[in-house]
Description:
The protein is an alpha+beta fold. The protein is 43% helix and 16% strand. It has nine helices and 13 strands. The termini are far apart.
Amino acid sequence: MGKWKNLFFLRASNIFHLEKKGRKTAPFMWRFFIFLSVMCISNTLSLLPVSDTHALSNVNDVKKIGFDEKLASSIDLDTEFLGEAGETVGISSFFGQKKPVVLSLAYFTCPRLCLLSTDGVLEVVNQMDSFRPGKDYTVVTISFDPEEPPDAIGARAAKYKRALTGGEKESSNWHFLTGTAENILALTDSVGFRFKKDGKEFAHPSGIVILTPDGIISRYLYGVQHDPRNFRLSLIEASEGKIGSSELLNKVLMFCYQFDPVGKRYALAALNIVKAGGMVTLTVLVAFLCIMWRRERKIF
């Protein structure tokens, strides 16, 4: 598909350079119109599926894939998984530490979506200067492929840990796990993650689950990339404002922003802002009247 796109760009370039060859050309507006048409066609071609895109064999299976939001529900804390070195890790070990947990589900040999999804987690984590793994929260990535080879886990884990801006200090707080089919299904069911194996690959949704320090589902953030503001506010919400440098500032942020269930993001709470503005105005007005009253008493 790339050669067709390059051909269109080449043709557009030739249209704009025919004058140099001494050949008669169309008026500028016509040439500009042709150029825009070429751009539109090339962009359309770039959006067409390419040969290595994996699609479901059965279209009806699309309904079986996605997230079922289970907000305020507890995840299955009794499940055990295998860590990067093959050690047994209980999922409960990440909780009870007064820090929220960022849970991502992605199998490590995935050639496409899982890579983008995990890259998105890395990107938003590195964009957070004041909220860092280990100090403020824990990141756990679990493979939902029980047949994942052990070396795939270690290689993927090493790659992402090296890319953390905090280096070794933070790398021990991003955990990569896999497990048996039974334990994987127990955890994915508890967070409402629906996926299906299709051939040698998996069809699955993309997103992260924000959990409270007690293992309660607080928020779902969908997609392969995440807005830093939404990520930060979801962590504050999950921790009840008890992480970061200023608990008071976090509580003010949660007062100003509320989660929009339709847009799936945090939006400015206009009514709360109006309330706060009204309180500030009333306070200033009362203070002004008190000052004026005292001055009036002194005069008389």
